[in-house]
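Batch manifest line 337
LIGAND: nicotinamide-adenine-dinucleotide
JOB: complex structure
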Amino acid sequence: MRVLASASRLRALLLPLQRRSFASTASRLESYGFIGLGQMGYQMARNLQSKLTPNDTVSIFDVNPQAMSGLETEMKSQSSGARVELAASVFDASKDADVVFTVLPEPQHVQDVFKSILTDSLPKKNRVFIDCSTIDPSTSRKVAKSVSDAGQGTFIDAPMSGGVVGATAGTLTFMVGATEDVAARIEPTLLLMGRKALHCGDQGAGLSAKLANNYLLAVNNIATAEAMNLGMKWGLDPQKLAGVLNVSTGKCWPSEVNNPVKGVVETAPAGRDYRGGFGIGLMKKDLRLAILAAKEAGARMELADKAWEVYEETEKLENCKGRDFSVVYRYLGGKET
Ligand code: NAD
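JOB STATUS: finished
ARTIFACT:
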């Protein structure tokens, strides 16, 4: 895996190159479609539009009309940025676009959206479709094939990490599955919404990397909650225990940044009744997709089913439901002061 480069340097270096590669004439600038304006997509589209030029166009679409009109108002209130169009459908958002982003919840949504886009009336164009949804690699590969079979350009996967905070601040990390040349072409565009674009390999590889990471996170999160609870039952002070873990071999993101015990990390969701953060529902979704993809690849996963059961049981509790996934500490009966 290769970090392609820092945002500002590459933007300056590659933007003219990118424009040349998409534009059919020197004067014509780019047209973007953006489909899926939920928690992530709304903020990403806002950042994208604000950093483009008034000669560019962003055509936005979501099945939720409120998301569209709210974003339109926000985009139009800016003094600069690309022109904004409200599309009437996913097809409408794509028909003139050179680059189409999709940020959708589940594999089925991505499949349905591409069925609606890839109709016979879609003008033939060498588009780049960038799917930032977290879905399974095999569905992603099927959709990529349908795009190339239809002669409509290239479909790549670019799932992201950084959450809503990163989407809002424009600091996301994208994990890119594409050929080298396509990855280099789309990188400056991704860096309008994020800080890093990691090229993981051919199409589907971005999703494989994302799901492997989130599987590890799912397990680390439970193990951290168990270790903190265990140490505290033995009489250890949680601050001191976390201090030891975070300079020792047990150190991980849940122990260091998202510690499940209130007061250990000031900014962690544990300090606000586990509200905000990475919802337990999203963790379950990513774990489900990782288990599915592992089965397809014949990879043995000893902890996956147990981790799934822990999140499933946690979510059944009224005081855990809808909270940040570190709430498993509460499910374990951890002490809260
Ligand atoms: P979300 O549910 O908030 O947003 C999804 C949006 O897609 C909604 O606005 C919905 O109306 C829209 N949509 C659904 N079907 C559609 C269709 N047919 N046409 C047009 N729009 C449609 O989800 P989110 O939190 O923005 O996440 C999007 C993706 O990013 C998911 O795959 C998620 O796993 C992934 N992700 C989320 C986070 C996070 O912290 N929220 C972090 C990393 C990755």
